[in-house]
Amino acid sequence: xxxxxxxxVVDDDPSIREILSIQLTRLGYEVVTASDGIEAVSAFSAxxxxxxxxDLMMPRLDGLASCQKIRALEKKAGAKRTPVLFxxxxxxxxxxxxxxxxxxxxxxxxxxxxxxxxxxxxxxxxKKGRA
Length: 131
Description:
By secondary structure, the protein is α/β, with parallel strands linked by helices. The protein is 50% helix and 18% strand.
């Protein structure tokens, strides 16, 4: 499923971006990265990813606001909805609700195994393909 699929990885922690990039590349995904929400919106517009893996807490523009901006861009362009998976250390009911209300599709708590992440990515990509 990963062949030719592009993932935008958004996290303010450079080590997390690097680890995810290496692991996802090994799984066959093409990876684009951004270090905060402002970069994420710009990278989304430039790279048209198949899925976005985004941290909640980031400087300048957090994941929730970034997701809202991306959803607005999609709506304005009449584009298909890109799945957004929030990958975060925060795991409260409030965070999950906020993520869903901002337009997020999945909520994955850190730490996460690469196997679980792969399964979650494949699930949203399969769902996107049927939509």
